[in-house]
User: Which sequence fits this backbone?
């Protein structure tokens, strides 16, 4: 079975349009046909009735139709002319034909007993007689002192009427399918023409692939729906190109990041194997290897977490947590680091805040931002952590007087593997910490922002909803 949805749109449009048009044409033509037939019939009825009424009123004072003598002349006298194409006959109350026009000399207008009965009771009766050709007949009673004395019948052939109606029907039967055909034909080509850009879009889409994301759809300067579709499609390809470039860059960064420790491992191993060494020397080399392995494990763990986060696979273990305790804990854990660098690390005003969140992840985020503060602040500088409640949110601020972040770097520092210091020095970290921190803040329906002035330091502000907005 052919399903409508399997048909091409141009066919569907044409069929739908054609179906509706066919219905309209059929209803309209039937209306015209019926209206035309009724008005023609009415005018025929009016004509024969008016003749009948003139005769009926002229005869009501003469009881005996035989008095008319020459009936044809009588009719001419009464009607003013000889009624052309009309058959007239007078029947008396006993049903005997008193007079009739010469046209029907040889025959009699067929009158049913029922018609006569009704006319005798004073009714005007119209009827169509199925002779060949058909006839229309009116039967009018002639009254004398409110008593039916006789009946006048006026008839006319329906030959012309039937012929006219037949022609009209033929015109309609031929005209409706013909005009429908013409309109459908034009409609099909119009639909085909207006849908041509869709095919262009489809062909362009087939050509576009990962290696060919510079391809664009060109359907000219159209402002209609198809123009907008092509524009949206082009924008989508542009977006895809950007995404693919980022993925490529990401793969390059990952390889680069893992290549350095592997090169170190390989180099150290090769050197160690060149000659026999003492147990102490081997221990030192293994220690160094362990450091590299730890470094790679950390990067791989971080990447795994980020890709799981992208796929929405990381579940937060939500709990009621005391943020103040958490901040104090992070402060205590990192104080030693700051002391070693001779940085003045202080705990500012910390609000007493409780919220729902994943404690481990929030700790990781805070540790990362605080450690960055210490890492990027020179000896003698200061770092301060504080928090305050503001408009349904708690803001944790980590302020340092370190090297700051250059204007051009600020918008990238939350990107994966981005490091303002491009030398990729090990001390500056892997460049994944802030991406993870940003994801953690956002997973808690919050956010993280940074303002910075080189070289006067940076301020990281973490915003978390108090209402337990975590997903
Ligand atoms: P990293 O492990 O390199 O610190 P992050 O993602 O934590 O990676 O930070 C990304 C980059 O942002 C850092 O390499 C550094 O250039 C810059 N950055 C982060 N925090 C600070 C800060 N407090 N002061 C100056 N620069 C910072």
Assistant:
């Amino acid at each position: 079975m052919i399903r409508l949805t399997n048909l091409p749109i141009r066919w569907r449009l044409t069929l739908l349009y054609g179906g509706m048009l066919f219905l309209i044409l059929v209803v309209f033509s039937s209306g015209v046909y019926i209206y035309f037939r009724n008005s023609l019939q009415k005018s025929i009825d009016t004509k024969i009735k008016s003749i009948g009424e003139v005769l009926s009123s002229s005869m009501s004072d003469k009881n005996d139709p035989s008095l008319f003598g020459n009936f044809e002349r009588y009719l001419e006298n009464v009607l003013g002319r000889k009624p052309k194409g009309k058959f007239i006959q007078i029947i008396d109350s006993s049903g005997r034909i008193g007079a009739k026009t010469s046209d029907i000399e040889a025959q009699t207008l067929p009158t049913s007993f029922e018609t006569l009965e009704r006319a005798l009771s004073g009714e005007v009766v119209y009827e169509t007689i199925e002779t060949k050709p058909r006839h229309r007949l009116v039967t009018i009673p002639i009254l004398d002192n409110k008593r039916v004395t006789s009946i006048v019948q006026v008839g006319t052939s329906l030959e012309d009427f039937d012929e006219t109606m037949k022609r009209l029907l033929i015109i309609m039967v031929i005209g409706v399918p013909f005009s429908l055909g013409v309109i459908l034909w034009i409609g099909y080509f119009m639909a085909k023409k207006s849908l041509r850009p869709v095919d262009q879009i489809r062909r362009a889409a087939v050509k576009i692939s990962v290696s060919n994301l510079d391809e664009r759809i060109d359907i000219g300067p159209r402002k209609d729906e198809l123009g907008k579709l092509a524009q949206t499609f082009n924008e989508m390809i542009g977006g895809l190109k950007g995404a693919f470039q980022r993925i490529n860059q990401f793969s390059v960064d990952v390889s680069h990041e893992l290549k350095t420790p592997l090169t170190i491992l390989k180099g150290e191993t090769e050197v160690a194997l060149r000659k026999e060494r003492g147990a102490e020397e081997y221990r030192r080399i293994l220690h160094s290897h362990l450091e590299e392995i730890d470094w790679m494990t950390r990067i791989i763990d971080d990447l795994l977490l980020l890709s799981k986060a992208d796929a929405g696979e990381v579940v937060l273990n939500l709990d009621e947590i005391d943020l103040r305790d958490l901040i104090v804990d992070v402060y205590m854990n990192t104080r030693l680091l700051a002391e070693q660098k001779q940085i003045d690390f202080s705990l500012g005003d910390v609000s007493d805040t409780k919220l729902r969140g994943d404690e481990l992840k929030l700790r990781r985020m805070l540790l990362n931002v605080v450690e960055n503060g210490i890492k990027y602040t020179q000896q003698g500088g200061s770092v301060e952590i504080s928090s305050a409640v503001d408009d349904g949110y708690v803001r944790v601020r980590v302020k340092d007087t370190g090297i700051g972040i250059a204007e051009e770097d600020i918008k990238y520092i939350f990107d994966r593997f981005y490091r303002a210091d491009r030398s990729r020095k090990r001390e500056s970290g892997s460049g994944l910490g802030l991406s993870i921190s940003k994801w953690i803040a956002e997973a808690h329906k919050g956010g993280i922002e940074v303002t910075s002035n080189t070289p006067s330091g940076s301020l990281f502000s973490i915003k978390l909803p108090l209402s337990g907005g975590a997903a």
